[in-house]
């Protein structure tokens, strides 16, 4: 059986009537090429059905053509959506992502990052996490770093994030404007920056409305559904009266909804409920959940685009990522 001839750069150069170096510049996108020559090279590649050897090109350029992405909890809807955005953002480039999971544990994050660096990734996208700013700044000396869903002072210009404080403030204010005064809050992990800022936004909205902060109406959670269930049980055990709950994410809100249902407490007739993240299933809860929408897909795509610009030494304008309160049927006016 005869083997199909492997097309080389020399074949493309002859077909396009240009030099091999011109073909190389077009393939690697390193140096500008005259438009007519670039068009000729691309036409020759298409006619010859040339398929570039990405792996070989990476080795030749001293690159792995991979981007390491450290997430915090594979299976979390918010983080998984960001990862989906990273995949979409790298499509059409020469780079592929490698994912590792930090599991919301510092030791696991450190181990995962070390594994990615040992794979000789060309850049690192850090999604959330608890590594110190100092550690991340040192990491940036080994490979370019982009940080998503977290603000780090030491690498401020490489951070993409939403304003969790303001989003939580607006969610709490919405409940206050609906007449609620005793508003409970189920927090996220205390070590998590987003959770701390959402709690602060909640507290500030109460203060601005002249409502005294009540620590007994605040219970700790861990962003998982089970902690939403436990949060409601804790609130009821304390004997505190409340007419609304602001949960720090949709997963805990769904857990809280189940706990209220088991107790025969109606949403929103007896207790109003707000979540955070606007995960797809939240629109299909009973009743559909009022929640804060975060642009998770856009965060992931922007992180990938940012990293590609860094690797190509091109400037990148960091976009803003506004949140939006999505009003559904889980909040009623206090009567």
Lay out the secondary structure.
Elements: H1 9-16, H2 20-28, H3 35-48, H4 54-60, E1 66-71, H5 77-90, E2 96-101, H6 106-118, E3 123-127, H7 133-139, E4 145-148, E5 159-160, H8 164-177, E6 183-186, H9 193-208, E7 218-219, H10 225-237, E8 244-247, H11 250-262, E9 272-277, E10 290-293, H12 296-311, E11 324-326
Parallel strand pairs: 1-2, 1-3, 3-4, 4-5, 6-7, 6-8, 8-9, 9-10
Antiparallel strand pairs: 10-11
Structural class assignment: alpha/beta
Mean pLDDT: 91
Overall structural domain count: 3
Summarize the amount of helix as a percent range.
40-55%
Identify the strand order in the major beta sheet.
7-6-8-9-10-11
Mind telling me which CATH architecture of the largest domain this is? 3-Layer(aba) Sandwich
Which topology of the largest domain does CATH recognise? Answer: Rossmann fold
How far is it from the N-terminal to the C-terminal residue, by CA?
83 Å
Cα-based radius of gyration, to the nearest Å: 25 Å
* Low-pLDDT segments, ≥5 res: none
Structure write-up:
- The chain starts with 8 loop residues before the first helix and ends in a 9-residue tail after the last strand.
- The chain has 335 residues and is α/β, with parallel strands linked by helices.
- Strand 6, helix 9 and strand 7 form a beta-alpha-beta unit.
- It is built from 12 helices and 11 strands.
- It has a 6-stranded mixed β-sheet with strand order 7-6-8-9-10-11, with helices on both faces. A 5-stranded parallel β-sheet has the order 2-1-3-4-5, sandwiched between helices.
- It folds into 3 domains: 44 residues, 434 Repressor (Amino-terminal Domain), CATH 1.10.260.40; 123 residues, 3-Layer(aba) Sandwich (Rossmann fold), CATH 3.40.50; 130 residues, Rossmann fold (3-Layer(aba) Sandwich).
């Amino acid at each position: 059986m005869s083997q199909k001839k492997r097309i080389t750069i020399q074949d493309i150069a002859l077909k396009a009537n240009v030099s091999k170096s011109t073909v190389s510049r077009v393939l690697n996108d390193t140096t500008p090429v005259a438009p007519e020559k670039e068009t000729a090279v691309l036409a020759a590649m298409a006619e010859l059905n040339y398929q570039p050897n990405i792996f070989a090109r990476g080795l030749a350029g001293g690159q792995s053509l991979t981007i390491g992405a450290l997430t915090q909890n594979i299976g979390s809807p918010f983080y998984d959506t960001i990862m989906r955005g990273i995949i979409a953002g790298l499509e059409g480039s020469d780079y592929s992502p490698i994912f590792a999971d930090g599991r919301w544990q510092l030791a696991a994050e450190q181990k995962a990052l070390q594994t990615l660096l040992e794979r000789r990734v060309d850049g690192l996208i850090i999604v959330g996490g608890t590594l110190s700013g100092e550690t991340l700044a040192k990491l940036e000396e080994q490979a370019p770093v982009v940080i998503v869903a977290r603000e780090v002072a030491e690498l401020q210009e490489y951070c993409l994030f939403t304003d969790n404080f303001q989003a939580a403030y607006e969610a709490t204010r919405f409940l206050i404007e609906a007449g609620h005064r005793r508003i409970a809050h189920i927090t996220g992990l205390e070590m998590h920056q987003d959770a701390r800022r959402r709690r602060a936004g909640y507290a500030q909205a109460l203060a601005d409305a002249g409502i005294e902060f009540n620590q007994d109406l605040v219970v700790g959670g861990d962003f998982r559904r089970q902690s939403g269930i436990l949060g409601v049980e804790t609130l009821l055990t304390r004997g505190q009266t409340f007419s609304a709950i602001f949960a720090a994410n949709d997963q805990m809100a769904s857990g809280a909804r189940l706990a209220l249902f088991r107790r025969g407490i109606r949403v929103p007739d007896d207790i109003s409920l707000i979540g955070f993240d606007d995960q797809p299933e939240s629109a299909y809860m009973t009743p559909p959940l009022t929640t804060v929408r975060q642009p998770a897909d856009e965060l992931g795509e922007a992180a990938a685009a940012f990293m590609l610009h860094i690797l190509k030494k091109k400037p990148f304008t960091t976009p803003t990522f506004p949140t939006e309160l999505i009003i559904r049927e889980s909040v009623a006016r206090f009567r």
